Amino acid sequence: MQSMEAESLETQNVLVRRLRPDDLENVIRIDAKVTGRRREEYFKLKLEMAMNETGIEVSLAAEIDGMFVGFMIARVYYGDFGVAEPAAVLEVLGAHPDFRGRGVGHALLHQLATNLLGLGVGKVSTEVNWSDPAMMTFLQREGFEPAPRICLDLDCEAFRRRQEIDI
């Protein structure tokens, strides 16, 4: 799937393929190693949604020597958040901690970009936790930049309390 001539030696042995339903347990296992908790229902739903996309290969798996070492779940949106052109959202990126620094994330992003450009999608957006400097550093090194929009959160309990005071 990936061009070997443009890749560094560290990523040449990473095989990137489409994420499959039978990858679910591997995805959960890697995420649990990274986050410290098993999010079975979350990933079951995410993989189900990714598998039901209309043949758009934007959710990917990475293997080294036949071992599942990383994954990426992404989606393509056609005109969300007031943007008219199609864009992709990188929802989850995970690499087994023992394989970090071996080009797994880079290989996944390289294949994602190739697939998206083939679909006429020129942008990928993602969110990163402010308290995860390693992920921010990785994404910056790969070419991600701050977006020209702001992500906003609403504390529903605080909102409801304010409404009760205003009444």
Largest sheet: 5 strands, mixed
Write down the Rg: 18 Å
Proper CATH architecture: 3-Layer(aba) Sandwich
Bulk shape: globular
The CATH homology group name: Gcn5-related N-acetyltransferase (GNAT)
Provide the succession of SSEs: HEHHEEEHEHH
The poorly predicted ranges are: 1-10
Please state the average pLDDT score: 86
- Please identify the structural class as seen in this structure: alpha+beta
Please count the helical segments: 6
By DSSP, the count of extended strands is 5
Helix content: 25-40%
Portion of residues in beta strands equals 15-25%
Question: What spatial order of strands do you see in the largest sheet?
Answer: 1-2-3-4-5
Overall tally of structural domains: 1
CATH topology category name = Aminopeptidase
Name of the top-level CATH class: Alpha Beta
- Measure the end-to-end span: 60 Å
Characterization of this structure:
The protein has helices at residues 9-12, 24-35, 40-51, 104-118, 133-141, 156-166, and strands at residues 14-18, 60-64, 67-78, 86-95, 124-126. The protein is of the alpha+beta class and 167 residues long. It has one domain (9-166): Gcn5-related N-acetyltransferase (GNAT) (Aminopeptidase, 3-Layer(aba) Sandwich). Strands 1-2-3-4-5 form a five-stranded mixed beta sheet, with helices on both faces. Helix 2 crosses helix 3. Mean pLDDT is 86; it is low at 1-10.
